[in-house]
Design goal:
With 85 residues, the protein is mostly beta strands. The protein has one helix and four strands; from the N terminus they run βαβββ. Strands 1-2-3-4 form a four-stranded antiparallel beta sheet, with no helix packed on it.
């Protein structure tokens, strides 16, 4: 088991399911789309819309793409004959 990241801070949290321990599956609030007091993750940082997270329960580290804001995905394909931006 990994130790908690030195940047883990209770003031920076996100409510995203942990892909390793899946602890949210037994929680009515989480399954109902609400934020509960137990199943939050440390938000270690972000790069545009990509969140860098750590689960306080199992200490798993992962990245989660939200699709919101800058950097949400690749640029749309170019259409032949369309002006370039």
């Amino acid at each position: 088991m990994l130790p908690l990241d030195p940047y883990a801070d209770l003031g920076r949290r996100a409510w995203v399911p942990c892909p390793a321990c899946q602890d949210h599956l037994d929680c009515g609030d989480c399954l109902g789309g609400r934020n509960c007091g137990e199943h939050w993750r440390y938000l270690l940082g972000n790069t545009g819309s990509l969140l860098h997270l750590q689960c306080p329960g199992c200490t798993h580290l992962w990245n989660h793409e939200t699709g919101f804001g800058a950097g949400g995905g690749p640029p749309p394909p170019l259409t032949p004959g369309a002006p370039r931006r």
